Structures are given as structure tokens and as C-alpha cells.
Amino acid sequence: MTQLTGIKLSHVQGVSAFSNQSCVKMERIVFFSAFLWLCSCEVNELQYVFVRHGKDLHLDIKKSVKLDKKTDLFWKCNKTNNVAKYGFNIDPVVFDKYEGRAELFGQNYSLVLKNVQHNDSGDYTAVLAGGQDQKIAEYKVIVQDPVSPVNLTVDSVSGSSESCVLAVNCSTVDSSIHHSFRCDDKNCSQVKEKTSKPQNYSSSFTVYLQQDFILCNHSNQVSWEYSKIKFDCKSITVPSRATLIQISTSAGLFLLSVFIALCIVTKCKSQCVFKQQQQ
Fold first, then answer.
1. For residues 170 and 77, is the Cβ–Cβ distance under 8 A?
2. Which SUPFAM superfamilies match (predicted)?
3. For FRET with 131, which of 94, 213, 253, 270 sits at 20 to 30 Å CA-CA?
4. Where are the domains positioned within the chain?
């Protein structure tokens, strides 16, 4: 079952492993994670749950619950939609809208909602209904799609085999990040940055340095995609404009030579046929 309870970003756990040069790059991730962590603090026992689209949602009741003839337990969505009901000494009931997708477990009165869709996002509460309603569990459920894959490429390389400047581009479906790094045989450092902000602010999208690699990371609370390039001025090469012109010129001359040769062969064959006809 894929879901994250409490708002945490898995990649934040590795921030301490980054080099000093990458710390600046990771400020956004740290700030983003800290903000979500503060939001995840239980206020009136509210808990955030992130679940991947199409997966199953599992909600528990952590308090001790006792039902009697005058007290039922309801799972509700957005206060007004009844999902399921537990009654005293009777089988659990799943209401029509959730029939076939919701399952109940009597031991701890937990709720499982299968194959969640985006419209399943909302506030889920477990309520004891008797002489007075009592809320005993509350969740803020957020259904997310997995993030799109990333494509990290080297746009250009300038300098020598000992020291060079790498211009890299990392792109997703709807956004991109451009970075330049000055590298030598020992390390790299960022020289400039130009970033277009991702349209989806519920995810983190960044390029940073880690050990001998330039990495691009795209993640949210339910998925993670990344790509990396090992920085090496000797091995990373991008054809220059002059090189491309030279290649194009060579190819053009080769094709022209082939064309001339075909014309000569064709003409010779025609002359031979003409002489044979005259004889």
C-alpha cells in the first residue's frame, strides 16, 4: 500500500550528505520540507495523508472505541458524505457511493478505500454518533499523481580538459531548469542560474551537486524521479558550431562526389549503348 502519513519528503533525509557547495542549492527543498512539516503537526488531531493516484487508502482509529446499542460509528468524507457505518453487534455497512471500493475492519474500526481517485481527496473523519457526536479521528487526504520523469542533458561545454564550464538543462513535461557549473578534475561549483518555476507547486524540482555528480531531482510526497551526470571535462563533449559546420560540409562534399560519379557512369553507359546501336 503506497501512502505517506505525515507530510515528509524522503529526500530531505539525505541533505546532510550533500557537499558544502550543494547546501545553497538545497535551501529550497529544506524550506519546502520545513513548511510541510509544520503543517503536519496535529492540530485537533488532524493528520495529513498523501496517497498515490490509483493506490489504496488506509485510515486507522488510534483511540479505544466501544460501541453499544445507542452508539454507532460513522466514517464521513467532507462532513456530509457517509462512507461506512459500524453498529453494535451488526455487520458493517458501506454506503452506495463507496460500495465495492470501501472495506471495514472491525478490530480497530479502520477504513480502506481502494483505487483512490482525485475526487477522493478531502477531509475524512470517524465520528461516534450517540447522545452527542464525538469526533475520534480526522485526516486530510490528498491524492497525488506521480511526478513526471526528468531529462538531464549537457547543453554546452567550454574550456579545456582540465577546467571547463558545463551548461546543463533539466526538463520535465511542463518546466525546466538551466544551470552552469565550473568544473575541474576535483570538484564543481555553480556559476549562474536561470530557472522557470514549475507550475505544480506541490512538488520539488531542483538541480544540485552531490559528490562527483550533477543531479536533477523531481519529487513529491508519493514519488521521486531523478537523473544524474558525472562531471568530467575530458569525457563530456558537445559538438561545437564549427565542428557541426565541418561535419555538414564533409557530408555535402561526399554526396556531391557520389552524384558526379553516378552521372559519369550513366553517361558512359549511354554512349556505349549508342555505339552498339550504330554498329
1. no
2. Immunoglobulin
3. 94
4. 17-32+147-230, 54-144
Band (233; pLDDT cuts 50, 70, 90): confident
CA separation for the pair 79, 85 (Å, rounded): 14
Name the nearest CA neighbour of 227 among 215, 239, 241.
Answer: 215
Residue 242: pLDDT over 70: no
For 106, counting Cβ atoms within 10 Å of its Cβ (0-12 exposed, 13-18 middle, 19+ buried), the class is exposed
Tens digit of each residue's pLDDT (9 = 90 or more) over 108-126: 899 999 999 999 999 999 9
Buried b (16+ CB within 10 A) or exposed e, 179-195: bbbbbeeeebebeeeee
User: Which single residue is written with the C-alpha cell 555505339?
Assistant: 275
Amino acid present at 147: V
pTM beyond 0.70, yes or no = no
The domain 54-144 is classified under which CATH number: 3.40.50.970, 2.60.120.40, 3.20.20.70, 2.60.40.10? 2.60.40.10
